[in-house]
Design goal:
Elements: E1 8-11, H1 20-34, H2 36-41, H3 45-64, H4 70-84, H5 89-108, H6 117-126, E2 130-135, H7 139-148, E3 157-160, H8 161-164, H9 171-181, E4 189-193, H10 196-205, E5 209-213, E6 231-233, H11 239-244
Parallel strand pairs: 1-2, 1-4, 2-3, 4-5, 5-6
Helix pairs in contact: 1-3, 1-5, 3-4, 4-5, 5-7
The structure holds magnesium ion.
Length: 246
């Protein structure tokens, strides 16, 4: 990767800096333990989390492709597992509306970070890169997550798809990010993210440089999905070396 011209480093938030997987599992488990109705419908916290994630992941894939609206996603990711478990639809809709802010609150309290996240931000900051967050997450929770995880002091720019109504990988979000950074040359921008479809392919299509972070907990075989033109890393600790060996 030629990195000599890079001035702005954009990081995805969930499962790139913040350990979203761990924080979401803790939030879902706490919901099950606090809600009698969930305990009646699902035999264990793990079972509840699995059914939620099954629907949530499918809905997020549709949301990234701009096939569904965010309010639909937020209703359906709770309504579907509840109805599937036998709850009448009207009751499931009422409960889903209540669960949405409750879950986002629990999620925002999560403090787990990916290994080496703070060290990477410190290194980028010390080397005078402009540091941006570029995330498809919901504005109600992303700012609180950034604050609670202690990331705020390092971040210069925050671009949320939810603020502008355009999701990664739509090229318009990368264009908007370049405008926010005041750097119109795409080759000065680097993205680091864990999702090859939303984070990486979209950035490459906009002529940004790209590092695909495939965390060590993910299966080795997934590395075959690395988009052409991206550099693959399995740890955040590898990134300073890549940027220095231009
Ligand atoms: Mg991510």
């Amino acid at each position: 990767m030629k990195s000599d011209k890079i001035t702005t480093v954009w990081l995805d938030l969930d499962d790139t800096l913040i350990d979203f997987t761990t924080n979401a599992a803790a939030a879902l488990s706490r919901m099950w333990h606090e809600q009698d109705v969930l305990q009646r419908l699902f035999p264990s916290a793990e079972h509840w989390a699995l059914r939620y994630e099954h629907h949530n992941q499918a809905l997020w894939a549709q949301y990234s492709r701009a096939e569904i609206e965010r309010d639909y996603l937020r209703m359906e990711r709770f309504r579907r597992p509840l109805v599937e478990a036998g709850m009448p639809d009207t009751e499931a809709r009422r409960l889903s509306t209540a669960y949405d802010p409750y879950y986002l609150d629990l999620l925002a309290q999560g403090k787990a970070l990916m290994p080496g996240a703070i060290e990477l931000l410190e290194w980028l900051h010390a080397h005078s890169y402009t540091i941006g967050i570029i995330s498809n997450g919901f504005k109600e929770v992303q700012h609180r997550k950034i604050h609670n995880a202690g990331l705020e002091p390092y971040i210069d720019i925050i671009v949320l798809s939810d603020d502008i109504g355009i999701n990664k990988p739509d090229p318009r979000i990368y264009k908007y990010a370049m405008e926010r950074a005041g750097q119109p040359d795409p080759s000065t921008h680097l993205i680091i993210g864990d999702n090859p479809d939303t984070d990486i392919s979209g950035a490459l299509a906009s002529d940004w440089k790209a590092i695909w972070y495939l965390p060590q907990r993910a299966a080795d075989s997934l590395s075959e999905r690395c988009p052409a033109g991206a550099t693959l890393v399995r740890t955040l600790q590898e990134i300073p070396h890549l940027l220095q060996s231009a």
